[in-house]
Design a protein that fits this description.
The longest helix is centred in the middle third of the chain and has 28 residues. This protein has one domain. The radius of gyration is 20 Å and the shape is globular. The protein has 13 helices and no strands. It is mostly helical.
Length: 293
């Protein structure tokens, strides 16, 4: 078989997984808040949008596997992320912060938001804030750089990336939490900081959805980016990003956005994404990597 029938006609496993996440959220919302609420319709609307992109790509001219199809699922997931902040608090009673902090204290004696107080300084807060802000630029940059190239490599990158995001968002739904900085706001002294730290704090407080703690997708996605660079032999870029990536992972604890349990879970989720991209995990719906299925 050659051409599109042999390469891009199938639906990718990551597209199926993200579709199941959206469909499940719609059904869950329908059962909890009913058809008169926007929650189920938004989830199903995003599912329809992702499905439309796949259908247009599969039925349109050309070889398929278009850049806009590869970008459609990540965009839909970003929209879903912001909607979670509206819907999850109404679907789940309470937050999991006490449990996550309990795990930290059971394993480490204390959660890092408290135990890292010895190293707090204005210059380190500025550096960690810069690393944390870098995530948002890297999010766009990595997607654009890999999708722009097209072909099987781009498809592999998007496939693993979307699995990381979908697993993370499922965690936000099942284990919603605000993070130690918010949960212990009245108990912890403020971090010494400068204008970069204040900017980062404003971005996080205005842009986060309030339930995005377990697992840490900052860690999971960063691990995935670095791991994919290793898989593809991008050693020059890896030399530039390795130190900022390590700083970004540490910043999640230093800046009190995450518990240690979140970071460990993020490492695991990022590793799953790398395994998917490397072909170590066989997708049940077909590979969709540009080879005959």
């Amino acid at each position: 078989m050659t051409g599109r029938s042999a390469t891009w006609r199938g639906v990718g496993g990551h597209e199926v997984g993200c579709g199941l996440l959206l469909a499940g959220m719609g059904c869950w919302s329908m059962g909890r808040v009913g058809p008169g609420d926007w929650a189920p319709w938004v989830a199903w609307g995003l599912l329809a949008l992702a499905g439309l992109a796949i259908w247009l790509d599969m039925t349109g001219p050309g070889a398929g596997g278009s850049w806009w199809r590869m970008g459609a699922t990540p965009v839909v997931l970003v929209l879903f992320y912001f909607r979670l902040g509206v819907d999850v608090p109404r679907l789940v009673s309470g937050r999991a912060d006490a449990a996550l902090m309990g795990w930290d204290r059971q394993w480490l004696g204390e959660t890092p938001a408290v135990s890292l107080a010895w190293c707090h300084s204005a210059w380190l807060t500025e550096a960690m804030s810069a690393c944390y802000l870098g995530y948002f630029m890297a999010y766009v940059g990595y997607l654009a750089s890999w999708i722009r190239g097209g072909g099987p490599v781009a498809w592999r990158f998007v496939r693993g990336f979307c699995w990381v995001q979908a697993i993370g968002f499922a965690g936000y739904c099942m284990v919603p939490a605000a993070g130690p900085g918010m949960f212990m706001a009245g108990e912890l002294p403020g971090l010494p900081t400068g204008w970069v730290g204040r900017l980062n704090d404003w971005v996080v407080r205005t842009g986060c959805n309030g339930v995005d703690v377990f697992p840490s997708l900052h860690v999971a996605t960063t691990v995935y980016w670095v791991g994919f660079d290793v898989l593809e032999g991008r050693w020059r870029r890896l030399a530039w990003v390795a130190l900022p990536a390590a700083g970004l992972c540490f910043s999640t604890l230093y800046l009190r956005y995450h518990y240690a349990a979140d970071v460990l879970a993020g490492l695991a989720v990022g590793s799953v994404g790398i395994a998917v991209a490397a072909g170590r995990v066989r997708e049940w719906w077909g590979e969709g990597t540009g080879t005959s299925r």
